[in-house]
Structure to design on (337 residues):
């Protein structure tokens, strides 16, 4: 059963084999009669006589991948979201984790999930893959794969996170092809096989059924409706524009970070120069202080030497006076007797 009370999943995937493959590419044709003065096709009211032509295989490959991503993969991710967060609790869970989610979203995504008019009711079908991916990754408590969320998973890793990341990466890859709207057969087969394996692995873990697998296989061989193909092409063009804007924002942020890093490096260099100057001054002050101390010590030593000389001189004088007194005392005794 699909999320959001959709009774039949196939009602949301336009893959009916009965659709005819007609991709209308109108072109104006001018024949010799036009040159001879007859009215041109633009001058004559009525239906165009331009033929319908079938697009090349590479263009059909691209449209098929567009439908796979925009319908089956999108609905599968919505089912995963509804499995981890029941639709009735979605609004409250988004509000509870608002700060964490807003930090991961761009302005357009934030406006969808948290509109300025108030937190209106929200269902999974209102969200595209990019928004659902952010929610699944950040608040659904799904364990990351071995290479970590946001990275290309290891080959053979069939964990839920790995399969979700493969769908996200392939969606981005397919969006990159929207500049020319073509995917060659070999690349198409590789992308389709990887997406099919991811879808099958997710379905096994989620429900154990084969509904999505049958839808993928049907889409691979069914005829495509030209109106639907054009719609998905326009959606992918819009996605590409959003990715370009996001890339420009990233480049702007990177440039801002580089500028900030340059300013910080300049500040660090200036601080290092100041520290070096301070160290030089300190060294000079230290040397000056040492010289002062040495000079003081030398002066003290000289004063001590002078004192020692004076003491020695006094001692010599003392001995001389003592000797003289002793001689005088001896002379006086001999006179008495």
């Amino acid at each position: 059963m699909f999320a959001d009370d959709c009774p039949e999943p196939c009602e949301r995937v336009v893959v009916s084999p009965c659709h005819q493959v007609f991709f209308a590419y109108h072109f104006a044709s001018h024949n010799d009669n036009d040159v001879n003065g007859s009215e041109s096709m633009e001058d004559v009211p009525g239906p165009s006589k331009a033929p319908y032509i079938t697009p090349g295989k590479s263009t059909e490959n691209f449209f098929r991948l567009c439908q796979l991503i925009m319908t089956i993969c999108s609905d599968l991710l919505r089912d995963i979201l509804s499995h981890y967060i029941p639709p009735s609790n979605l609004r409250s869970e988004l509000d509870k984790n608002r700060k964490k989610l807003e930090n991961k979203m761009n302005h357009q995504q934030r406006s969808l999930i948290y509109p300025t008019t108030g937190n209106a009711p929200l269902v999974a079908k209102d969200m595209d893959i990019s928004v659902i991916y952010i929610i699944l990754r950040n608040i659904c408590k799904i364990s990351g794969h071995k290479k970590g969320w946001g990275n290309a998973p290891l080959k053979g890793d069939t964990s839920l996170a790995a399969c979700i990341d493969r769908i996200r990466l392939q969606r981005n890859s397919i969006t990159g092809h929207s500049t020319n709207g073509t995917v060659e057969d070999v690349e198409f087969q590789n992308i389709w096989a990887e997406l099919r394996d991811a879808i099958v692995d997710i379905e096994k873990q989620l429900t154990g059924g084969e509904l999505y697998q049958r839808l993928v296989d049907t889409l691979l061989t069914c005829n495509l409706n030209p109106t639907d193909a054009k719609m998905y092409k326009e959606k992918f063009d819009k996605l590409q524009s959003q990715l370009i804007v996001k890339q420009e924002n990233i480049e702007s942020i990177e440039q801002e970070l580089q500028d900030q890093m340059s300013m910080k490096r300049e500040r660090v260099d200036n601080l290092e120069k100041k520290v070096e100057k301070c160290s030089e001054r300190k060294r000079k002050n230290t040397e000056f202080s040492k010289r002062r101390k040495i000079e003081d010590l030398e002066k003290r030593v000289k004063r001590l030497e002078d004192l020692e000389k004076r003491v020695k001189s006094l001692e010599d004088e003392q001995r001389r006076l003592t000797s003289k007194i002793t001689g005088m005392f001896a002379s006086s005794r001999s006179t008495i007797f």
User: Anything to note?
Assistant: The two ends are 153 Å apart (CA to CA). The chain has ten helices and no strands. Confidence is low (pLDDT under 50) at residues 1-54. Residues 152 and 229 are 29 Å apart (CA to CA).
